[in-house]
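Morning run. Coffee first, then this:
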Amino acid sequence: FRDIRSMIRDMKKRQRSAVSRRGRPRPHAPPARAHLTVLRGLPPLLESLGVACEPILNTAKLTRTDLDDPTRSAPFTELDRLVGLCVHETGCTHFGLLLGQHVNIQTFGVAGRVARNAPSVGAALNDLAAYFVLHDNGGSIAVSIHEGSVTLSYGVHVTGLRNGDQVYDMAVAAMVCVMRQLCGKAWRPEAVLLPRRRPANIRPYRDHFMAPLRFD
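And here it is:
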């Protein structure tokens, strides 16, 4: 794990150096990226909704094989645009929620492998948060454990996203999938808080989360 920690330190150092003393990004700052494995469920989901996958992937110059390649990543803004296109083509306003249900702990590469070998659920979540930057440096996971309960959250640092509601739906749906993988399929959260407007149809959210919901 020493090499992994060195990678994280170097990445964070580059991120800090990309910001000027006034806190403004320098022109040459690299865009935030995320690994494409998070979209592995895109082809079967699109096909289940009656939409061909290849034309949509072609708009982002991607193939099905790219989504299975753990070394491939793309700018966060491009993934945001791709998810928005999927919503438009399918007419499914909770597309991000459905896409997040295809995520598991293996999706997160090194972070997932470290978490899977942790001695407890709490340690697994802390490891996932610590190494998450290797998978996605456009957002971060926070873990707070107190008296046997945990608050698990995800925050996006990238500005200007047009489909932030879909990104957060996907992230929180994925969190629940990870927790059920660690704790068993019967696990339910005590509450789910989403930073998006209440959708007209909340049934898909109730079906997946099986917990009290709070929007906005």
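Confidence is low (pLDDT under 50) at residues 18-22. Good start to the day.
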